[in-house]
Amino acid sequence: MRAAGSEPVVGHSGGVERPLLAAPRFALALAALFVLVMAAIGVDVAGNTEAGPFDQAVFDVLTRRPDLAVPLTLCTHPAAMIAIMAAMVAIALRAGRPRVAALAVLGPVVAAGINTVVLKPLFDRTHEDSLAYPSGHTTTLVAILAVLVLVAAANATPGRAVATAAIALVLVAVGAGAIIGREFHYLTDTVGALFWGVAVVIVLAALIDFAAQRVGDPPSVQPPLESTSR
């Protein structure tokens, strides 16, 4: 018996499109936890205009080699992230995966939008007179990578899904380290963005799955092969 929300649907290419979330209840519980962690960090740094001791220690180390940080920040450049999103949408649509295409756009846009309009003014943590928590560049990068990890988790073997998640974390660490090295943000700004970006993508994936089941699915779905052979 499948968990609620895990029923496959027919994609535009005639194949079976898997839901974005393989275990929606667990994923949403994880998203709620991540939002709480982001909020807890935000409350701790709210209103700060300077770094705390830990943030400052990391900042001092990573800003020693700005020559290395400059090229590494290319992965968080808006043009690069838009290009990646466009490629993900094109590949998803070609494969008959409209849910993935929708998440590839909505995930980064919604996460970054709410972050800019709501979270940054709410926490009012500043760095060089600019609102800094959570980091917007890190939020967008994390949301893009979270889409890839969710797709891998729903479609690949557990080993490949874990490998994808590990690679994504490395890329986030590189991007966040470069952002700190360029003196754009403190470490806590990027950590909060990590939890926020993942949480938003999970929630949007659940909403997309729910909407597809209610209004976007075909009226009938062919039973699995094992059922028809009995």
UniProtKB/TrEMBL annotation:
Residues 130-207 form the Phosphatidic acid phosphatase type 2/haloperoxidase domain. Pfam families: PAP2. Keywords: Membrane, Transmembrane, Transmembrane helix. The chain crosses the membrane at residues 26-48, 68-93, 100-119, 131-154, 161-181, 193-212. InterPro entries: PAP2/HPO, PAP2/HPO_sf. This is PAP2 superfamily protein. It comes from Actinokineospora alba. The lineage of its organism: Bacteria, Bacillati, Actinomycetota, Actinomycetes, Pseudonocardiales.
